[in-house]
Amino acid sequence: MMKNIKNAVPAILTFTALVTTVTLIPSAQAECTSPNTGPIALSNPRPIKGDNWRGKAFYEILFMYREANGSGVGNYFNSLGNTFHASNEVMDSRFRSLNAETLKKKYGCDGVFFNGPRRFVANGFTGMAWDGHKKRVIGTIPFNLDGTFEVPSFQKFVSGPPVAYKVLVSKRTNTFSYKAGEQIHELITPKGEVYTMFSLSLKSDPENTIENLPTLGKRLTLPAGWKYRMRTLKNDLVLSSNKNSNPPNSIVLDQFENNYQHNPSPK
Q: Taking a C-beta distance cutoff of 8 angstroms, is the pair 120, 56 a contact?
């Protein structure tokens, strides 16, 4: 997904789960060990891959820094690709119990944003985890460093909820794959650009489940000029992004914080 829109609109999630970019510090505790150091630059990439992930739980935390002009930039750490030894409900509870102020003090960031609990909607993924795919265990949940994120307003982003129906920049390297016959959910901007959902959020609505996605169109309140559609794929679909692409990869969130990636070939 895109054009250089860092200043045009707010930004979020998600490899929302997947995989983005930054230069990493070698230590597992180095994400933000001293205050206001800025985001970690991405280096030392390692490939990650997952098949048959539709409906599986994953989580994301964004460590954000305030820029001089009031915008925000940060790293996001995602659990996608890691195995959990507890039920989705138990893992959701552990994620919800994390405290932003505690993490902000521990890692020296200006703000922390919790993206989730989430469920993966695509069938599979490939991507890059950075810093040698080193695990960060936060609240018993293992995370990978997946990328960087940019938002036009630091304060609005960390205070949440994120702005819906705005095109956001998400710098990462990954693919999302969907199988023929799968139902997919898409947002279409007033300019006709198509964004395809790759993950859903249970953060604001615990009933926003995979099973309830067929009713999503009735529950959305779309801005003027925006459209929603659900369709069944006739062929396999793969959405790709690259952290160095120009224009950069972009995403859109709906009012429930479901995450959609730009789809340049939606037919």
A: yes
**Residue 229, strand partner residues:** 186
CA distance 205 to 83: 25
- Binned at pLDDT 50, 70 and 90, residue 200 comes out as very high
Length of the chain: 267
Give the residues across from 124 on adjacent strands.
177
Contact (CB, 8 A) for 237 and 121: no
Residue 261 phi/psi, 5-degree rounding, is: -105, 145
| Dist. CA 220–CA 109, nearest whole Å | 34
Domain spans in the chain, listed from the N-terminal domain onward: 46-263
Most confident of 28-32, 44-48, 49-53: 49-53
pTM of the predicted protein model: 0.79
- Find all residues with CB under 8 Å of 18, minimum gap 6, and list them: 78, 80, 125, 127, 146, 172, 174, 176, 198
Give me the phi and psi of 57, to 5 degrees please: -75, 145
Question: Across all residues in the chain, what is the average pLDDT?
Answer: 83
For 140, residues 6+ apart whose C-beta sits below 8 A from its C-beta are 94
The pLDDT tens digits of the residues spanning 61-97 come to 999 999 999 999 898 899 998 989 999 999 999 999 9
Q: Contact 48/104 with Cβ under 8 angstroms? A: no
